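SEQUENCE-TO-STRUCTURE ENTRY
===========================
Question of interest: how does this chain fold, as expressed in backbone structure tokens?
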Amino acid sequence: MLTRDQALKHLGLKAPASEREIRAAYRQLAQRFHPDRVGENARFTEITAAYNALLRGDVKAADATPKPRPATRAARPEPIQRADVEAWRAWRRKAERLHAERSQGMSPPSTPSVAAPSSPSSPPPSPTPPSEGVKVAERIARPPGLLSRIKAGLKRFGGLRLEGRDEVMRLPVSGEVVLTGAQQRIGVQRKAACVACASDQARGEACAVCEGQRRIKLREEIRVYIPPGAREGVKLRLNGKGTAGLDGHPDGDLYLLLEPQPIEGFERQDADLYGALEIPPHVALQGGEISAAGPRGALRVRVPKGSQVGDLLKIKGEGLPTWGGGAVGDLFFEITGLTPPP
């Protein structure tokens, strides 16, 4: 754990520094050392960890003596219904499938209509003949417009899509990474441009490597920084890591769809965490300090006088960092029982 002076030094500040100065220094350094601008680097990880530690107060003093965190009673929030979460995930999967079909030039599948079977004894119904002088019309598919055909011709050459294409990949994120953020090495399979095509096409021969597809499947490892506070459905973009473009067209991007895993012992609602706590009867009656297991380690919690089973205790700034930086969520303990005396 960093001391406050060490954390301020990472941000180029000295004590005492206000919260406004800390935010301004972090914003300036983050723009300078962000991985999208200068590539993966340890400096960005250091300043992010120092910034989060200063905002949460998760720094040790010079004497390294932990101070008790005061807890206040809080109103119980409305629980998130599991059915709502499942409905949202089903909608998202359907939207992604439709987007992928449209990007490949496919139309979404239609549900065929099935006529009710006739009884074996009755003869099949005969079609009603049209009246005299009435023309019979058939329903046909609408032909593509001129602009659509021009765009398709510009995008495709020889049956191949020349421009790059964006890809989406699901990435599970552990509870520890959700809390602190980390750099991870992930394996990615992508379609890259075939380097052997140039010489074969110059000789007028079909490429023996890609068999005329002009792209080959490659697997490569990429280092990516995942900031703390990852939420369900958030995407990280990796520039140029999608399907490669051909004949000067830009490469597509790779989007990492984050899937944060649960934090052991706690439930999450946005940036707030909820856990259970048992306290001794005398502490519930008279109030006092006890040790509790927090998401980042042991905490000293000051329990208010007259606490009861079912009360919700709030510890400010011990939740998750907000995605993109800024405020930090809170930690809530529900008193679930009284520990028996020794």
Observations:
- Confidence is low (pLDDT under 50) at residues 107-124, 153-158.
